[in-house]
Amino acid sequence: MFNQALASSVPIQGTAVAARWDGLYDFLLGISAFFFLLVVGAMLYFAITYRHRPEKKTTYFTGSHLLEAIWIAVPTLLLMMIFGWGYSIYHAMTQAPSDAYEVRVVGKQWLWTFQYDNGKTTVNEVYVPMNRPVKLVMTSEDVLHGFYIPNFRIKQDVVPGMYSSLWFTATVPGKHQVFCTEYCGTSHSGMLAKVVVLDDAQWKAWNLNRPIGAVPDVGLEGVAEASVAQSAPAAGSLADQGKAVYEKKGCVACHSVDGTTKVGPTHKGLFGSKVELTDGRTVIADENYIRNHIENPQANTVKGFNPVMPTFKGLISETEMNALIAYIKSLK
Questions:
Q1: pTM of the model
Q2: What is the pLDDT of residues 285-319, one digit of tens each?
Q3: Which range among 8-12, 15-19, 172-176 shows the weakest confidence by mean pLDDT?
Q4: Who contacts 326 (Cβ-Cβ below 8 Å, separation ≥6)?
Q5: What letter does residue 163 receive in the DSSP assignment?
Q6: What is the β-pairing status of strands 101-108 and 134-140?
Q7: Rounded to whole angstroms, what are the CA distances from 131 to 2, 12, 52?
Q8: Which has the closest alpha carbon to 198: 231, 174, 228?
Q9: I want to staple 254 with a disulfide (CB 3.0 to 4.6 A). Which of 7, 146, 205, 264 is the partner?
Q10: Domain residues of the chain, as ranges?
Q11: Per residue, what are the HEC states of 252-316?
Q12: What CATH number belongs to 2-94?
């Protein structure tokens, strides 16, 4: 009965991790109810049993080391179990599979833009395949935003000037509501989006620019719809668009894509590699490193090269940056 009542009050479980979080949440509610009844019951028992009566003198207690050990050990063990349980779920949430399908997300007042490897761009709706890991690589054009999908039980801050990410494997087809959970200005409550989870046939049709049919909302019906726009299919993949940016911004003048050394280091095989800097640090060339190197090159000079690269901060839009990074990632 308790589980049925709880199930009716929370969103559906759209991912496996949602079920794991709900299991922990059920346990916390159950143990809270147990100790509430235990404490209140004991309080009522003692208040009645040991109430003041002139004809009876209360027995004097000096304490019990066993009782003290029990009420220290039991809560400690419970808290350690809860910590381990929660950490195991959190660790699984933060370690995206290497073969996850990547979508680049840009938040700005007050909408979400999604870029795909095939070159498509959508606004306020992100299309993903069912039963396949999906990784969202996110940044903001202006202020702090929060990307929250209640049905999936996942949430991640979206921060200007850097990349954050989250991943999921959607198990329920349909449209799942997205909210912004960081106050970001006047229309914060209207910064809505949908995760559109497609089955295999619909996913194939969507990638071929064919009709996918009606896709129903899954849970949280009645939430106001955000405006949705979808661009025409791009002329090339996201990496192809990044190559055009690479050439347009003059990256080819100082960096090679075939392994040869120019004024700057080659970008072939850069992504995911270890890079040694002139200040002695060794860093992993992920999305944030590449972005920081483009915007703050003097702070990230590669060992063996002179700090001559100018900053491109403010000269490359977020969508161009996503395309540029996608191109550099493709140079293996």
A1: 0.77
A2: 888 888 888 888 888 888 888 887 888 887 888 88
A3: 8-12
A4: 104, 117, 237, 238, 239, 241, 242
A5: -
A6: parallel
A7: 30, 16, 66
A8: 174
A9: 264
A10: 2-94, 101-230, 238-330
A11: HHCCCCCCCCCCCCCCCCCCCCEEEECCCCEEECCHHHHHHHHHCHHHCCECCCCCCCCCCCCCC
A12: 1.10.287
| Cα(305)–Cα(39) distance, integer angstroms | 68
Cα–Cα distance measured from residue 122 to residue 118, given in angstroms and rounded to the nearest whole number:
12
What pLDDT is recorded for position 156?
Answer: 92
Instruction: Please tell me the predicted confidence (pLDDT) of residue 263.
Output: 80
Given the candidates 3.40.50.300, 1.10.1040.10, 1.10.760.10, 3.30.565.10, the CATH classification of the domain at 238-330 is 1.10.760.10
Q: Which residue has the tokens 């990256």?
A: 251
Q: Is 70 exceeded by the pLDDT of residue 196?
A: yes
In this structure, what token pair is assigned to residue 330? 């493709």
Partnered with residue 170 across adjacent β-strands are 15
The CATH architecture that domain 101-230 belongs to is: Sandwich (2.60)
Which pair of structure tokens corresponds to residue 310?
A: 């100018």
* Other beta carbons less than 10 A from residue 106's beta carbon: 23
Give 53's strand partners. 56
What pLDDT is stored for residue 2 in this prediction? 43
